[in-house]
Design a protein that fits this description.
single chain; 272 residues; mainly beta; Jelly Rolls; 6-stranded antiparallel β-sheet; 2 helices; 18 strands; 29% strand; globular
Length: 272
């Protein structure tokens, strides 16, 4: 994610100044709000950088999803996805989908509450830009809770905006990125927030993120939605939500996307 022109104007920044800050993720921000429960500002460049870990070979593309999985993308078409009110317009070729110029972010037609999500992604092999301007995309839930996708292989940015970061809140425990153009995996276990009948928050959203077989977050609670340069505030919504892949003007690729619902298993058959 990055700063937008309207947001820059709202904050009283010139567009040129905003672009300079956004392009150099190593600078970060120190004028943004403090993240609740921490000593750090949102997108704070002084926050400690996650240590680098070289991941092993944790997955094999082409392996069949579990028998109870809902396949969201099998490499053939975008029939399970939409963009705004119309059809998804990303490129599909050779078993992957790719962000297309002005294609817009895409989201699942169906909605889900608690689930296990698997996907594979590759940032562009041709390296362009630095910080948040390099291989930027994201996996979002309901369009408001983001697990960052970025090329952080030998590319520093503010820690809460790194690959696998809970955007603007929590950096990944480690940096497990592979080189640009290399296929990488995310396994995300998502638990939706809940409100009671009086619209009181009774359960925060929680997420576990495994990147290339390496744990980045273990059932980490979100303090709220994950907007740019701000602290998000929980507002009641249904637990069922769509999954979104972000268009950030970088030709990021995705493949082998499937999901398993949690907590909706058939009861075992009783012995006779």
């Amino acid at each position: 994610m990055n700063i937008s022109k309207p947001l820059a104007l709202t904050l009283g920044l010139t567009v040129a100044a905003a672009a300079v800050i956004a392009a150099d993720g190593k600078l970060g921000y120190t004028t943004t709000p403090m993240i609740p429960g921490t000593q750090w500002h949102v997108h704070d460049g002084d926050r400690p950088q996650p240590r680098v870990v070289t991941p092993g070979e944790s997955f094999s593309h082409g392996a069949k999803p579990p028998s109870d999985a809902i396949v969201l993308f099998d490499g053939k078409d975008l029939s399970k996805w939409k963009s705004g009110g119309g059809e998804a317009k990303w490129k599909v070729a050779d078993g992957f989908m790719e962000v297309s110029p002005k294609g817009g972010s895409i989201q699942t037609k169906d909605r889900f509450a608690d689930f296990q999500l698997h996907l594979e992604f590759a940032t562009p092999i041709e390296v362009k830009g630095t910080g948040q301007g390099r291989g930027n995309s994201g996996v979002l839930f309901n369009g408001i809770y983001e697990v960052q996708v970025l090329d952080c292989y030998n590319n520093q940015t503010y820690p809460d905006g790194q690959t696998g970061g809970l955007y603007g809140q929590t950096p990944p425990l480690v940096n497990a990125c592979k080189p640009p153009g290399t296929w990488q995996s995310y396994d995300i276990i998502w638990e939706s927030p809940r409100w009671d009948a009086d619209k009181k928050l009774v359960k925060k959203a929680a997420v576990t993120v495994i990147h290339n077989g390496v744990v980045l977050h273990h059932r980490k609670e979100l303090t709220g939605p994950t907007p740019h340069q701000q602290n998000g505030v929980y507002k009641p919504h249904d637990p069922e939500m769509f999954i979104e892949l972000q268009d950030h003007s970088n030709p990021t690729r995705f493949r082998n996307i499937w999901l398993r619902k949690l907590g909706e298993y058939d009861k075992p058959e009783m012995p006779k």
